[in-house]
Amino acid sequence: MTSSSQDKTPLLEIDRLSVDYGLKGVSLRAIDGVSFALRAGEAVGLVGESGSGKTTTAMAIAGLLSPNARVSGGQVRYRGNRLPIDDDAAMRPHRWSETSVVFQGAMNALNPVHRIIKQIAEPCMLKLGMSRGEATKRGSELLQLVGIPADRGSAYPHELSGGMRQRVMIAMALACRPSIIIGDEPTTALDVITQAQILNLLGDLRSQLSLALILITHDLSVVAKCCDRVMIMYAGRIVEDGTVAEIFAQPKHPYTRQLIESIPNPASGKKMIRPIPGDPPNLVNRPSGCAFHPRCPSVMGGCATEVPSLNKFGRGRVACHLHRSLTQEDKVAVHA
Predict the structure, then answer these.
(1) Tens digits of per-residue pLDDT, 143-180?
(2) Which of 70, 142, 253, 311 is least surrounded, with the fewest CB atoms within 10 Å of its CB?
């Protein structure tokens, strides 16, 4: 295979992936027919309100779904090979070595009774077969890579600031030299200055190490800072995706447009932001048709009865009846 063909081959492919949760005898579909591809070195943002399915999508990719979750359809392929995402034991050789996760809430994710150098070194010993000395050396190198002096490796998590703890989480995610990093709300609960520093760090590491990045967030401004492409999720489905520049300049889906309008922007001259009316849908009793239609300012005939398919639109895709006049051959079927 030539280098040019390798560049065109997706590193990761998610194909019509659906995941259900069992909750007190009720089945809840958290993601429904999600499809997208990620290329080496690319940064993709998954954006949506709480309950949109973005974190479930990320945890499915990493094989970290909760015990009450079930993959009910579709598949995930890494370098062309299907991943056993519903088999924890089978996913262990892949997890952290090829795909790793930076979790939100570093204080809860780090072990409070172990020094941080030990927590970074441990996966190096388990996954890479390093000796304790080799792993400790790599841990010190990783701390310096993320901007923490190596001598701070003897500290416990509670002795570090929130931003420093999040840097430790990034160092741990890099420990086994993965190709893909998933950031699950990695700047949650950080002040705006520290948030900017963490996003800059992720961008620098992505360039320096040729990493692919999947960034999970509810904040479009975060995506604008460090992603190439963005996918907007609502009620478990992708409703729009495209380049960051295209999405911000010309959003096609009403939900995307309202998300952008809800972002404070002092440069715009607007004195008031526009919150999205209504509440996210109850996935146990999902609205018929387009799940966004009860909140949509552009609702039209068919929205309440027909689920819109995800159609090609320029270089992106959109699932909205406003754009259903596209030709049939332009349509990309989504598992429904």
Answers:
(1) 999 999 999 999 999 999 999 999 999 999 999 999 99
(2) 70
Q: Is 28 helix (H, G, I), strand (E, B) or coil?
A: strand
Pull the structure tokens for residue 76: 């995930």
| Element spanning 24, H or E | none
Cα–Cα distance measured from residue 78 to residue 96, given in angstroms and rounded to the nearest whole number? 13
By residue count, the chain amounts to 336
The string of DSSP codes covering 279-313 is ----STTPPSSSTTGGG-TT--TTTTT-PPPEEEE
* Cα distance between residue 322 and residue 302, in whole Å: 10
Q: Which residues pair with 241 in a beta bridge?
A: 231, 317
What residues contact 243, with CB distance under 8 A and at least 6 apart? 228, 229, 230, 315, 316
pLDDT at 109 (0 to 100): 86
Instruction: Indicate the domain borders of the chain.
Output: 3-98+178-332, 106-177
Q: What is the pTM of this model?
A: 0.90
- Give the β-pairing of 316-318 and 310-313: antiparallel
**E strand map for 131-179:** none
CA atoms of 115 and 334, how far apart (whole Å):
47
Which DSSP category does 162 fall into?
A: H
Q: pLDDT tens for residues 58-96?
A: 999 999 999 999 999 999 999 999 999 999 999 999 999
Q: What percent of the chain has pLDDT over 90?
A: 74
Any idea what DSSP says for residue 54? H
- Cα dist. 173→223, 245, 264 in Å? 20, 29, 32
Beta-bridge partners for 318: 240, 311
For the domain covering 3-98+178-332, report its CATH number: 3.40.50.300
**pLDDT tens digits, residue range 17-36?**
999 999 888 899 999 999 99
